[in-house]
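If you are new to this repository, start here. Below is one unmodified record pulled from the training split, so you can see the exact layout before writing a loader.
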Amino acid sequence: MSRKSKISSVPPRLPAFSLERQKVVRETAPGPFAYEEAPTMRTLRAKTAAALSPLFVLTIVTALAACRGATTSMPEPEVNTDMHTTETARNAHPVRRVVGTNPGHVGRGTPLVPSEGHALAAFAAGCFWGVEDNFRQVPGVTATAVGYTGGHTDDPSYESVCTHTTGHAEAVLVEFDPKVVRYETLLDVFFQNHNPTTKNRQGPDIGDQYRSAVFTFSAEQETLARAAMAKAQADHEKPVVTQISPIPRFWKAEEYHQQYDEKTGTHSCPLPRGLPRGT
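And here is the target side for that same chain:
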């Protein structure tokens, strides 16, 4: 059926007159509308009668009173303002560890000697700013510094390392207390806080200075590092390309690189991934 035929088949409606005018139309007009109230008017009258019914009014009043009573009688939830304020402050300003800045009495290619009872570790996992910030939040780490190692030139600078001709990696030197944190835990933090499957790259940083590497200080560390690398491989489909080798001379980086995230407030998480539960 066409739109035009649908419109022409609709029966005519009474004009929207007032009640008095509709009564006159019903009493005087011939045809099917004579003495017959329009369906819309019957509905309106029925609704009006129901609305004016005393029983209906009483029901509405009773319901409103019951609703009001339920609302006012329900106790307000108690809010621990002190706890909420403390939690908000903790999230906005996470408590960070105070850690030393002179691991192994580090210098520019000088011998590395840890404090009595401590040990050293070194890792390369991309830009050393964030890597250092991660390790500084590991309980048991007593000092960190960033620098350059693994290359073939002496006295490297940041500018020379960025030319990708020195062979040096941006690395973090870590001094730790073995009685508080195991070397295996440091390896877990290392592997879980960067992508060890990308060669000479971490995110947008590209070049051999951003390679994944573990620089060991003993045969035992090398054994543990290779075991941790095999463990990390199980978590990745692509091959883990982390380099593991004894540490050569370590050259401390320029002062403005040291603890960069702490100086600039750009760190995000108070604790890195890879720490044991309950740390």
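Two things worth knowing about this chain: Residues 1-46, 48-52, 55-93 have pLDDT under 50 and may be disordered. The longest helix spans residues 54-73.
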